[in-house]
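User: These chains co-purify. Model them together.
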Amino acid sequence: MLPGVPDSVLIANRGEIARRVARTARRLGIRVIAVYSEADADLPFVAEADEAVLIGPAPAAQSYLNADAILAAAAATGAAAIHPGYGFLAENATFARRVIDAGLTWIGPSPDAIEQMGDKIRARNLMARAGVPVAAGSVEPVSDADDAIAEAERIGYPVMIKAAAGGGGIGMTVAADAEQLRAGFATASSRAERFFGNPSILIERYISSARHVEVQILGLADGQVIALGERDCSAQRRHQKLAEETPSPGVDDNLRHRMLAAAIQAGEAVGYRGAGTVECLVDRQTGQFVFLEMNTRLQVEHPVTEMVTGVDLVEQQLLIADGAEVSFDVRSVEPSGHALELRVYAEDPVRFLPSPGVISKWQEPTGAGVRVDAGYAAGNVVTPHYDPLLAKLIVSGPDRTEVLARTRAALADFVVAGPKTNLAFHADLLASEEFVTGEYDTSVVSRLRPLAGDGWAPSQGGVRDRDPR
Amino acid sequence: MTEIRAEMVANVWKVVAAEGDAVADGDTLVILESMKMEIPVLAEGAGTVSRLAVAEGDVIQEGDLIAVIE
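Assistant: Joint model of the two components:
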């Protein structure tokens, strides 16, 4: 076993990420403990673990979000550490504190860092103080239309009106002048009250054509924060990412240099340790970027960074959590080549509506540069209880053109029967001129699939995704 | 008379309309929940909700009756 890692780890998650964390743990000689709900008993991550503990019925609130059951499983199996994956309890500071108080190693940043980044307004103001560019906007929520208009005049139109307590783009609307702002404010405020129990509104400068670009950071055990390149996550449906690539085709060396430096500043401002991601919006017209939020955990799309750097991010998380040095040379690490990830969801490829069911056939592609992180296999049941992510197809190669060619071939070889999947959408995405040229922004998916909706509230007839990531 | 049926396996998250309600085309009747998505079920045409066949918390299968509008 590698010195400086815990001897056993309980993975408080399910599906592909539970399996992916287990793969590295097993390679390092760490005993793997899975926890699972009644709905997931037949999934590969349960069968492959050294030990598996049933923690409750299907609903997440009674299983994967049940901190008592997870801590009891850790105690019963003698787990030395807990890896939360992403989602569920990964960004829950109270859970992180309980893990630490129980004498276990928490594979993640400090509960304080989680807390500071969890409140979006607080995080933005903290970043601004640390010198990280943020969107011009109201520093505090505004509560009436006149205040909103005063803010908008200071910031400059067009502005984005959004719920202070919201997430996932719910109730966001754009105003080009004071009249539109007055009307939009009333609607957004009542919607925010209904959905979040809080009518407060934030006003921000609106970016009409933006790319969603994020930076992978690692806070080392000695306090140093490093950046491992960026990922472009602009291809989204209803604010849920569908495809991610690195390097970003919309980021030049100068912009990359500035973004990575800002991400390091962001990490240092909260004393960040472990793997984290600084999400930004890049304005395609001005070439400027602003801080969006920081995700204090391993990101779904972390594999593209791994493919171009050769760094196993889960291995580094395990080392850092135990206070050890990372296993690569931080001075010489340099991304090379290109990598693309496509998220394979159990949903129809036109409107992106969920499609649970029994998987009758499952055939993963293979080939040069092809990696598949899957949560399911043939015979498994995809239930309605959790998110629709079945697998991630990750393809790397010497350059973007070669990666797109390899990905098209891999997509053609990826066979899933039973639930509908978005594989056919991905084939269309890879055939679209926007994506092929790299000249795309955050609305590329809605241009290809106008029927899929934009993530507005269900009361407006649109499907809404909870907690997109 | 229009029968509104489920397009997928889902949980009934919220029942918005009630039996006897007058609804317009496109009004939300219930909101389903599946795979962390909230999916509104809309009235197809104006009329009166003569039957609501689901309650909050129900698990429904593809093709199950949700509501009848007359």
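The mean pLDDT of chain B is 92.
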